[in-house]
Amino acid sequence: MEVVLLPTPEDCGRVVADALEGALTGARDRGAPVVLGLATGSSPLLAYRELIRRHTEDGTSYDDVTAVLLDEYVGLPAGHPESYREVIRRELTDALGIDPARVHGPDGAGPDPLAAALDYEALLEATGPVAVQLLGIGTNGHIGFNEPGSSLASRTRVKTLTEQTRADNARFFGDDAEAVPRHVLTQGLGTILRAGHLVLVATGEHKAAPVAAAVEGPLTASVPGSVLQLHPHVTVVVDEAAGSRLQLADHHRYVLEHKLAAQGW
Ligand code: GLP
Questions:
Q1: CA-to-CA distance for 26 and 24, rounded, in angstroms?
Q2: Ligand 1 pocket, 165 CB below 6 A?
């Protein structure tokens, strides 16, 4: 696992954009599916703005890219502004020129979310492997919507949100935690581990504890982000605030300073 500690959230956005572009280029070069795994929430937004800037200024092409989402709320009607399909279209994929038909997420709007979970897992099997999966982390250590207690081998399924996560996400629903759906569909931890490269981004002091627990704590279902320790290619990108509880912070800075050009992300 590589831990990249950077001064500002903007620096994190640039490095995440580099890592995502590098993974897509690598997939193209190998003749592998060019599948980009996307996350929602606030953490990825600066990286998304950087990708859009590069696409607009340099013409970086996404013509061959398929995008897949990590998760979705259950019960929001299709087209609801806070459904993750809508959020990702608004924040990223439209601006990159990715055809909505090539942007996939679990279907939380249909009558049968249990079947939708199986369908999404099958779609990921057929479309993947995901070249690179971007992740944020919840204040309770969740990734995707895999709340504490999630099986480390889980697949896409319905989950029930903790009250903490509903409160954290209330800001997207007019500060009303009761308006945040109680149920979600999420790629499982085992599903996420199938991606070729995992890139987790976190910024701000409120992420310092979950980042330290995921990166340096024991591997445990109680901290779903700790499952990253099982993956052979992980890049954790944090600003100084989110990395402030890492005991090995000095070592991570030293490694970054002495990184070989050939190592890439
Ligand atoms: C949300 C999402 C996650 C996200 C996390 C952190 O509930 N389901 O994919 O990574 O919680 O969100 P934020 O980046 O807004 O802090």
A1: 5
A2: yes
Number of domains in the chain: 1
In a domain, 152, yes or no: yes
Which tens digits make up the pLDDT trace of 53-81? 999 999 999 999 999 999 999 999 999 99
Determine if ligand 1 sits within 6 Å of the CB of residue 144. yes
- CATH no. for residue 104? 3.40.50.1360
Does residue 16's CB lie within 6 angstroms of at least one atom of ligand 1? Answer: no
**For the chain, percent of residues with pLDDT exceeding 90:** 98
Buried b (16+ CB within 10 A) or exposed e, 159-176: bebbeebbebbeebbeee
Q: What is the pTM of this model?
A: 0.97
Amino acid at the residue 84: Y
Residue 173 included in any domain:
yes
**Tokens 């996350």 found at:** 39
The pLDDT confidence band at residue 98, using thresholds 50, 70 and 90, is very high
DSSP characters over 202-232: E-SGGGHHHHHHHHHS--BTTBGGGGGGG-S
Residue with tokens 């569909």: 185
Q: 257 alpha carbon to ligand 1 midpoint, in Å?
A: 29
Q: Tell me if 138 CB under 6 Å of ligand 1.
A: yes
Q: For residue 264, tell me if it sits in a domain.
A: no
Give the structural domain span for 60: 2-259
| Mean pLDDT to the nearest integer, 125-135 | 97
Residue 130: inside a domain? yes
